[in-house]
Amino acid sequence: MEEHTTQESYFDEYVGHYFDKQSHFTTHPWTFRRSGRDIFSKITESSDRTLGDIAESIGFDFISGKDPVFVQFISESFIRRNKLERDILIPCLRGANVRNWTVDWHGNRKNDSTSAIATGVELYDNLDDFPNVHEYLMRHKEVLGMRRVYGGPLADAGRKWFEYWHWAVQMHTPKIIVAEVATHAHFFLDIEGRFVANASCQVIYLRNRSIEDYKLLLGILNSSVCNYFVKRIATRVQRGYYRWKKKYIGKLPIVFPENRHRTELLKLIDEILSLANRAMELSMYNLVRKEEYGNVSELLGRRQAYIDEYRSVQARMKDIQDEIDHLVYKILRRLKGGRQTIMIEKKGKLKFINWLKP
User: Fold this and answer.
1) Is there a cis peptide before residue 68, judged by omega within 30 degrees of 0?
2) pTM greater than the 0.85 cutoff
3) Can you tell me whether residue 205 is helix, strand or coil?
4) What is the per-residue pLDDT for 71?
5) Which backbone phi and psi does 192 adopt, to 5 degrees?
6) What phi-psi label fits residue 193: left (phi over 0), alpha (psi between -120 and 50 degrees) or beta?
7) Measured CA distances, 22 to 2, 34, 229, 320, 345 (Å)
8) Taking the CB of residue 66, how many other CB atoms lie within 10 A of it?
9) Count of CB atoms within 10 A of residue 275's CB?
10) Phi/psi of residue 159, each to 5°?
């Protein structure tokens, strides 16, 4: 092997290596060199199981067929003004709301941060229990009744005029949500099933409902390894955006770590989730709407404290993300058939060595 170490890259049946700039691994997401014999094939070989194998479903939560009525304008102000019953309203996420580990949602901005009226499709099929929602929907009965399902009228598909075109939400069930179009991996864990996600998101429900498995999967999905893998096979839209659809993310090899690595990864994920929850609390909306102030100076002082704490939380999240990136790579580097990949730092470059143990 020593005779080949001076070469930029070398691969044969038993051994191989290549160099990459260390600067590519200093910030999340990592940038791997794109070559015919790069790390992509190693990730592909790391497991016989894919995300598609362990997921019960990957796809849309719902398609209303008429979002302007059911979703777009159902902001907090609209709800209060029309006295809509809250038992039938569910916070609704769009792709733009979803970041990695967290969401930007407060519920009071039309077209961006709203709730969804959850009617029909075996959820709430008796509008008499919600008279104000019923009155609101009656104003739009004509346009709702004109919707078509698979080319035919709603009635032919067994749908009532106020029901959704498609509803796959599993209420009060953990799920992972990702923006369908994004620059890099933006996965969010909704542990309590509090949100529904519209058609600009993909939603992942696991066969095994273990919260621990959901957390481990979230760590893998938000890692640089996942980001690199999906970008190699996904459709590029424009300006660095990619489609994070089922046919791409479903192919990601999944390896759940055991023993020490499992404990270490879960600890990092729990910490970053705690910080993510705190970051969501530090919004300017919460500052203005949920606290009281004696004067403007007091408000401005509290605003600066919010900003300072938010920056501190983000900095710590970045550090933990770096640790997660390295740990996930370490977990996935052990390949089928006894193969391993190690990473060696040398003069501003990272050297990747892959070998087949005898």
Assistant:
1) no
2) no
3) strand
4) 93
5) -90, 0
6) left
7) 22, 15, 19, 19, 8
8) 16
9) 19
10) -100, 140
Q: CA distances (Å), 269 to each of 226, 255, 308, 329, in order? A: 16, 16, 23, 15
Two tokens, residue 103:
């969401």
pLDDT above 90 for 343: no
Inter-residue contact 94 to 84 (CB < 8 Å) = no
State the first-to-last Cα distance of the chain, in angstroms, to the nearest integer.
15
* Residue whose tokens read 């070559």: 35
pLDDT band at 38 (very low <50, low <70, confident <90, very high): low
Phi, psi angles (nearest 5°) of residue 260: -65, -45
* Tokens coding 326: 């390295």
Q: Give the alpha-carbon dihedral of 162, 167, 172, 178, to 10 degrees.
A: -130
Q: Beta-strand (E) ranges in the chain?
A: 9-11, 15-21, 55-59, 62-63, 89-93, 114-117, 148-149, 152-153, 166-167, 175-179, 181-182, 187-190, 196-197, 201-206, 242-243, 339-346, 349-356
Q: How far is Cα 1 from Cα 53, in angstroms, rounded to an integer? A: 38
